[in-house]
Amino acid sequence: MPKKIYINGQFLAEADAKISVFDHGLLYGDGVFEGLRIYGGKVFRLEEHVDRLFESAKAIWLELPLSREEICEAINQTVAANELHDGYVRAIVTRGVGTLGLDPRRCSDPQLILIADKIALYPDEYYQNGLEIITVSVIRNHPAALSARIKSLNYLNNILAKIEGIQGGCIEALMLNHKGEVAECTGDNLFLVKEGKVTTPPLDAGILAGVTRAAVLELAEKLGLSATEQVLTKHDIYVADECFLTGTAAEVIPVVQLDSRMIGDGKPGPVTRQLTEAFHQMVRE
Question: What Å distances lie between residue 238 and 10, 115, 137, 276, CA to CA?
Fold first, then answer.
């Protein structure tokens, strides 16, 4: 079925879905986005994603063209128009058409773009056997320069880290913050398990406030697991019993090696498997 792309209230064929070359989203990466998952024809945690979209927009002084309720409705309409039972929605808001200068006041008409499609971030074998990752030299943006809480269209920081990881033979990579502490991976939040206790870096470590991350913390509490946010170092991961990543596209995926050091016994651990199954049950419900 041909994809139908939503742009400012209209559904367009993929070939006809276009924005201006003068849009500051293209010229400067000036805009925000969200990635949302569809399970059983419904968008998972839609309101939380839209709330984060509005927070990101407010942080960069960008006024969204619709209300929260209208954007939620537009996303649901996009899912229905594309007849997706399981899949992914990318919600994008650009600054709009402007000049070749930086001044955002000279931009007009922010563009709301919604793209719905199927997605498979990692092959099944990685969910079964776990990821091997490395620490890269590219650090997360300093929070005084650009907050990691802003999900902006300028993802070059993450892309450079991804390139370094790929060149090192890994499809995912660990990024540290400006203090040398564990932040997150190029596209996912990180958790580790030690002696049955689940930990993840705090938001002020320079990480995105992941929606799946929050869901897993909730699940851990429901399962009676100790789950806390605390500052982590590479050493904490090296000596952990288990490690896993969370993200909208990735869901929950185990990590079995960091920097050529085996984590635990080198296999996805019982807590990771327990949380993975609980997450799958949550989205099915």
Answer: 50, 39, 17, 22
Same structural domain, 191 and 276: yes
Q: How far apart are CA 193 and CA 272, in angstroms?
A: 8
Same domain, 52 and 155: no
End-to-end CA distance of the chain: 27
34: containing domain? 4-117
Q: Is the pTM of this model over 0.85?
A: yes
Please report, as a single letter, which amino acid is at residue 221.
E
C-alpha angle 275/281/285, rounded to 5°? 145
CA angle 43, 126, 248 (to 5 degrees): 20
Catalytic: which of 151, 162, 197, 222?
Answer: 151
Average pLDDT of the chain?
97
pLDDT in tens, 85-108: 999 999 999 999 999 999 999 998
Domain count, the chain: 2
Residue at a domain's end among 88, 117, 146: 117
Distance between CA atoms of residues 9 and 241, nearest Å: 49
CA distance 128 to 135: 22
Active site residue 151: yes
